[in-house]
Design brief:
- The protein is mainly α.
- Helices cover about 60% and strands about 5% of the residues.
- The chain has 11 helices and 6 strands.
- Strands 1-2 form a two-stranded antiparallel ribbon. A two-stranded antiparallel sheet has the order 3-4. A two-stranded antiparallel ribbon has the order 5-6.
- The chain is globular and about 55 Å long.
């Protein structure tokens, strides 16, 4: 018996509407929704909890965060997944165009989640130095909101029919239009939306005001995301041009392992610091 959800990805169009060669795609829309969600959650904390960080400082941080996601996501994608691009299409790294055969609007294809995290962290470090506030205090304020925004990014991947899972025979497997083998696959984007997004958000949001965990939101986020993604990667199709790179592990898993290690390292580091009053 055919189940409707097995063909769900084929019924979804990645485009909301198009004018000429310009297309408004769900994927880009999901980025906007993601940032809006994180912004509104952080603003809600100002209504509910009166954080110590000045409201305007938190609001201005978002410009740095957006820049960090875009720059870090793109540069990270190229370094981790497509280093050849540095030679073949260097302009395309940061511009949504391909100039190799005439001028083509490609959109920013390929964003690395791990690159985005590094980008936001680095730009946030610059920002806190300029504003003379503590990095960990800012992280405690914004990080609990981030996974819920992240859920939208994965839904965008799902609507795009990209980054799907490995071949499966589970009842909820799906056919993805871009998959030439046309076999049932894990809808791993939805697993990621659920675990790296909603579940991690619920956890961080619950513990966000726990005094014992002051300054630890960012490392806990790194560990939580790293663990969730590490296990989901076992059912996510590895990047075609990379495959598994280290025994059974994919590039995503190597990067998650680094995240988990960094999270525990940071906790040890923060615990050693004298508490700032």
């Amino acid at each position: 018996e055919m189940t409707w959800w097995q063909h769900l990805p084929e019924k979804m169009s990645p485009t909301i509407f198009g004018i000429g060669s310009f297309q408004l795609r769900w994927y880009g829309m999901m980025y906007i929704l993601a940032f809006a969600t994180v912004y509104l959650l952080v603003m809600a904390r100002y209504k509910l909890e009166k954080p110590k960080i000045d409201l305007e400082v938190a609001q201005n941080w978002f410009m740095y965060a957006i820049l960090g996601v875009i720059l870090g996501g793109r540069i990270g994608y190229v370094l981790f997944y497509d280093p050849g691009m540095i030679l073949t299409n260097p302009l395309g790294i940061l511009l949504p165009v391909d100039v190799n055969n005439g001028f083509r609007f490609t959109g920013l294809a390929g964003m690395s989640y791990h690159g985005g995290v590094i980008g936001v962290a680095l730009l946030s470090m610059l920002y806190v130095r300029q504003q003379k506030i503590g990095f960990w205090a800012l992280a405690d304020l914004v990080v609990p909101a981030i996974p819920l925004g992240y859920t939208f990014g994965r839904l965008g991947n799902f609507i795009n029919g990209e980054l799907y899972g490995r071949v499966t025979d589970v009842a909820w497997g799906m056919y993805f239009p871009d998959d030439f083998s046309q076999q049932l696959r894990h809808p791993s984007q939805l697993y990621e939306a659920l675990f790296e997004g909603i579940a991690l958000f619920a956890l961080l949001w619950m513990i966000r005001n726990n005094k014992k965990l002051t300054h630890l939101m960012f490392p806990i986020y790194l560990i939580g995301y790293g663990v969730a993604r590490f296990f989901i990667e076992f059912v996510r199709q590895p990047d075609a041009h990379l495959g598994t790179i280290f025994g059974p592990f994919s590039m995503g898993q190597i990067l998650c392992f680094a995240m988990i290690a960094a999270g525990f390292g940071l906790i040890a580091l923060i615990r050693r610091q004298p508490r700032q009053r």
